[in-house]
Records
---
Amino acid sequence: MKTVLFFKGVQFKLIRIFIIYLILSFYINPLSINAQAIQQEGQNESQINVISANIRVALKEDYSKGVGWDERKELLFRILKNKNPDILCLQEVLKVQNKAFKDNFPNYFSFGYEGPEMDAYTDDAYHGIAKNPILFSKEKFELISSGTYWLSDTPHIGGSKSWNTARARHVNWVRIRDRNTQREFRILNTHFDHVSNEAKKNQALMILKESNQYPKAFPQVLAGDFNSDTTSEPIDIISNFWKDSYAEVHGDTDPGFTVHGFIGDEAKTKKGKVDFIFIKGDIQALQSDIIKDKEDGKYPSDHYFVSAKLKLIGK
């Protein structure tokens, strides 16, 4: 009798386990979970992670201060790689730095360093012109077209200057296609003058005129060191047609300064945020940050970097 009751008890427990399994299977469908995972993966693939980084031009005199290029480049590469960028917009790049980036980012297409203004010098020193290359993931994007124009009255002449600018300034741009979504968009990378306000205003106006050739909805991203903060006239000019990705995410929150002279938040400066990632057209800012990473108290550059996670919208 006890044996019969034992087996009936086991049978009852098995039935309960089976019923619970059916209930869980109904509410937790493996196919549904898999579909959600695939959807999330697709969303991540359609997002574009952009970083704008003024890496500080490689100067011989920086070695006496302990911040020479060879003393900080590995730190720079570690920090940037850790952020998993899809697109890198660099400023203040010389030949030795351009080569180092190509070597350290072999899966990225690099555009914008080479030009007649750089071919004129063979000593690899700084002659008042540093370039703004753009690097993008070859796995994620394909190049459609590209170009360079100088922020001057003669934009097709390499190294040309106008409007009392202290340095020759330029814009590199690429038009690329997302291999996943087949959407095309445009990246512009620049570095405004650091002295002449007249030059900065005209440089801003020139970018507006050039970028406004495209249809209003065409997605464009403008990154760079503008040597101007949000209270300045050049940024006001740009903001008439472009949106600051940081402000789109954080609103009126004061981001602080981005030029710190290798000493971080202890820097005493009246400048605010001068490094930007602007957007216009059918593109949305999902996230934006100021990158302040350091190791053992050492920074990779005299600027903080800025990042933006973007998404193409519309058709």
---
Amino acid sequence: MPSAQSQGRAASMQPLGTTKNKKGHHLNTPPIWETSRAQHCQAKRYSWAMENMQAKKPTLIIIPSDVWMKTNNFGDMNEKGYFIPDYKKAFQNDANLLLVISKINTIMAERGFPLKNLESEIKKIENTSNTMAAFAEAIPETPFEQLLRTLKTDMIIQITYTLMQEGPKKSIVFNLQALDAYNQNQVVGANGTGAPSVSVNLPVLLEEAVLSQMDNFTASLQKYFDVLMEKGRESKLFVRVNKKANINLDKDMNIAEEEKRLLDWMDVYLKKKLKRYNIDNQENDYSVDITLNIPLLDEKGAGFSLNDFMSQFRRYLSNSLKIESKYSLKGLGEAWLVIEGEKSI
């Protein structure tokens, strides 16, 4: 009967990646050199997730960047010379794109971020017009702005990536950009090159490349969103008075026997409803441009958007000032309001 010492030596000489069951039979298990990468990535992901699940987080959507779309010929130039990406074509013709977006979705979801799926959302707007009329003139809306308006997401994460190969080894070069969905301002970026590997597939290459930067990336993303929660999201409001209307912004209006100019009554409403706003430009009595900081939540804690604010603002003009108006959105963060005139009695 073999000694305990010899049994120990025999155990230590077992092939890597094998274990024995109770009957002493070898079980087929993944070799250690194949599982160590995945185990390391998984441990790092869950460690971060446990520490950061409590804060309210922005809703995200992962999309391929225009640079990636142009490079891979998924889109066309329109008559005005603007590139129009064809996301549907990209999903149908590039299997790696689905894998890359799925992997970034997984990384962000494990860190507590709610996500929307680009491929699913595209189907909702395939037959929608790309323009909206604000008043006498049509306000052009790009397909990307139209997509954002439909998605109603907080942040966009654009991914650009290139798979490199030198001999049998592969590596991935990536660039991530987080943008505010309302104004397309960049919030934070991350880029780099993953370590070359012979046997690892594309999603794992990407995960290993980005994980080292995810802590700083997501921390900056959360910090920006926390500021939005406190101060509101910056949006633009362009007010125009129809020249055929019987009023203008300087006309005195009466509410409950108190008289103010129309623009002053608008100012009263903005002060009451918003933490911050600024009148950027007033060229004449028929137009004014305003920067609004829209709260992300209403008084009941429900989500609140520029569209919600404009709907309420229009009711205020109608009910309190007896003014006819209409508005249109361009993307998520820009609204155009046209004042048509006083209601006929």
---
Amino acid sequence: MMCTKRGQVRITLFLGAVCALVTAAGTAAEIDLGRAAAPPLPKGYESSAKVMAGIAAGELKTVNLAPAEMPEGTELRKDIVYGEGGGQPLKLDLYLPANREKPVPGLVFIHGGAWAGGRKEDYFIYCKHFVAKGYVCAAVQYRLISAATWPAQIEDVKCAVRWLRANAAEYNVDPNRIGVAGYSAGAHLAMMVGYSSDVPELEGDGGHAGVRSGVQAVINFYGPTDFTAEDVRDIGALRNLMGGKTYQEATDLYVQGSPLSYVTADDPPTLIFHGTIDDVVPISQADSLAKRLDAAGVPYFYDRMEGWPHVMDLAADVHERCLYFEDKFLEKYLPLVASEETQEGTE
């Protein structure tokens, strides 16, 4: 552990390419989550515009995002302060399951919105599902770029993980079984939490110093993975995240903000969802992540959805497929009943 990811940030992208050349000689890291038994992926579309047309015509059913009642016996505690960022309180919504007689896994959900918008409430539909199963769920806010630029966002969400671990006993969370999930920009932050657990300069000073921010599982819904790639580094939202600086002006920042810069063999298992016609975050970003995880030997599952765009999980049938794989993934890596291995503790 003396060779940390800090020393790898500049060279990992190159080394990953080298590792990819020898992947065929090793053991593939992709896991089996029962793809054959999953709800079938509906036939895709040629473009995002045709998806929207299908919704408008009533041909494509979408999930109901309207606020709903919490599952019986569960509890939602809103606006708990988990830390401080830029002198302002940072808040989360905590979803508590009905029965917490024994410690259960905790899940941290990070909203998207190009690091410029979105709300912690956006993840209600997923938190409701997982709290009903018995997980403690925390949907977190973080500083948007109107308040602070990179790396404030990763500092905040790492603080949220530390808060959950620091308060594990109070809420009956197993501190050795914490996962993180996000969509789009939130998925980028989820991956950064998962892969940069030993990079002190990204921890920030928002609170709970000395508490580990590492997690045991990552769920990535169509998040950007490599800010240095030619097909994303000139995107306006990314430039805004970097304080208006271009890739040429701040290459080090773009490398620092890329989850792929930190992938090593000891990183947590990862579940990936991405659509092939995503015109916000190119499918190449997920393809690159899968290759890098495979080369490093990190367990992963990649559901590459042909003919589906960004936020494809808003389609009801796609949403059900995603939940199926999420359930299987968490049953495997964050089971509600801890094994002896997880009880002994992990990073």
---
Amino acid sequence: MHKTAPFRLQAILDRDFGSKRSDSRAILGLALHLRSGSKTGNYTMKTKVSRAGVALVALLATAGTAMAEGEWSGNVAMTSDYTWRGVSQSNEDPAIQGGFDYANGSFYAGTWASNVDFGDDSDTNIEADFYGGFAGAFANGMSWDVGVIYYAYPDADESDLDFVEIKGALGYEFASGLAIGGEAYWDPDNQNVYLNATAGYGLSDVLSIDASVGNYSFDGGGDYTNWSLGTTYSTPVGIDVDLRYWGTDVDDVDISDDRFVLTFSKSL
């Protein structure tokens, strides 16, 4: 799993309540809302009893002793701005990222990490994701993927930023080379839903273009839409160079402004 970049924005809530703020603390507040589902104003913070976390443990246990029979891979990346669902997670600063993946038949599992900067009182600097699931293809060639993702912030002091999402995805590649897909992510503890549609096309063996449109819906209000358009070039030395434009419909918040993000990544 290579995560292309949320930040929890209180400003998203501010948009609906008519209180626009562009200072850094408001920006970081939005990021925290996206991450943890914490609510302010007319909302109350939900106690996070991660039922889906139990599902992730059960999912990983499914691999059992067969772990040694599968294949391992890794990835590393440097990006100019860790952007996730249209919002900067690194306060618009560069980030170093990487992870390891395991696959055995239809089963997969892995971990991925990045530096983050929410600029809030949690003082967290690390995000570590753990995920697992099953993926395959139907007889008609349509791909499918179901899994669980646990987002952890181990150095977040006493702040509870961790959350879990359950994922479902479908995809199809036409004979022309055009690939389309749809993804749904559900946070059962905070009742948040993220829907994403993607399309991509390989211009050559080393150059491709893709686009996405996503919508983040929150149980407490403050929904927003994001979009991206990017191109990826695979260099002869095995390094992928990705240049991507991100945009959202969130106004007056620096970390959700339109931006270009440059990422260098390599599979191991």
